[in-house]
Design goal:
81% of the residues lie in helices and 0% in strands. The chain has 294 residues and is an all-alpha fold. The chain has one domain. The two termini are 19 Å apart.
């Protein structure tokens, strides 16, 4: 029996989360031979140019107001990605870093509150659960909140701002055009940081270029294209629940690829953060459960 369009879209979103998780591995491997800000500049500028070429008609038809909103969301995204790559470079544990970064989704209602929106009561519940998760991580004697972990937390906060700004921009901007602007703005934000903090030097090793290429083609262009397509074919509730899988994939892949080990206290902290993610989407979780259960 052929699959419905919605089921195909949901399966595609699962693939998107897997590509996002694999992207953490590609990026970590690339950082072995290339400076972090240089990598971000190359990855997102290249990806943005590819998407801009695909959506050039959409870009040409955008109003000045649409451009303004897209640029603001892109600037926020660019600063967030700068902190994210520093977290990836200096973080001690990739899997835990993925869960720390995912806190951005939990913080979205809180940020929206500061920007004039009224969050549901469940938002404060999810924040409390996430705080317990962070407490468990901080109580683990083998885990230290160093530069990398603080960078992940700062990235999470900025990702929450980006989500709110993107939601407002998406109401009046085609998806491919918006994605291309955001990716290009990441490159624009990274460029001055690169010039101030790093010496422009491209890697000479072929394997590093392979990881950079995989990051651009699969983890950036492929991921964003499939995500835009799938979100247009399925319900927002299904998409919201499926996207929670990204830190889970990242932790599993980090354990398999790098041999990372998680202590019991770290595991409890990550599970609590995952529960907080589900709690922040409880309406979507219930909607999906009603659809799946007879």
């Amino acid at each position: 029996m052929p699959l419905s369009a919605a089921v195909k879209a949901d399966l595609t979103l699962v693939l998107v989360t897997l590509l996002a998780g694999v992207g953490w591995i590609f990026s970590k491997e690339a950082l072995a031979g290339i400076a972090p800000i240089t990598f971000i500049f190359l990855r997102f500028t290249s990806g943005g140019l590819v998407l801009a070429a695909a959506g050039h008609k959409q870009l040409a038809a955008m109003s000045s107001q649409s451009w303004g909103r897209a640029i603001r969301s892109g600037l926020s995204f660019g600063v967030a990605m700068t902190f994210w790559i520093l977290g990836l470079k200096y973080g001690q544990h990739l899997g835990v870093g993925a869960f720390l970064t995912s806190l951005g989704a939990v913080l979205v209602p809180v940020v929206g509150w500061f920007m004039g929106d009224k969050p549901a009561r469940s938002a404060w519940v999810s924040v409390a659960i996430a705080a317990l998760g962070l407490a468990c991580l901080s109580l683990d004697g083998n885990f230290v909140f160093g530069l990398g972990e603080l960078s992940f937390l700062m990235a999470a906060l900025l990702f929450s701002f980006t989500f709110v700004l993107t939601s407002r921009a998406a109401a009046m901007t085609p998806a491919v055009a918006l994605s291309s602007i955001q990716l290009l703005m990441v490159g624009l934000v990274a460029l001055p940081v690169l010039l101030l903090m790093e010496t422009w030097q491209l890697p000479s090793a072929v394997d590093i270029w392979l990881w950079v290429g995989l990051s651009v083609v699969l983890a950036t262009c492929g991921r964003f294209f499939l995500q835009v397509w799938a979100q247009g074919k399925t319900s927002p509730s299904s998409a919201a629940v499926i996207m929670v899988l990204e830190p889970v994939w990242t932790a599993l892949l980090a354990a398999a690829w790098f041999g990372e080990q998680t202590t019991p206290m770290q595991l409890v902290g990550c599970v609590l953060i995952f529960v907080a993610l589900l709690a922040s989407r409880w309406r979507a979780v219930l909607a999906v459960a009603r659809k799946l259960l007879p």
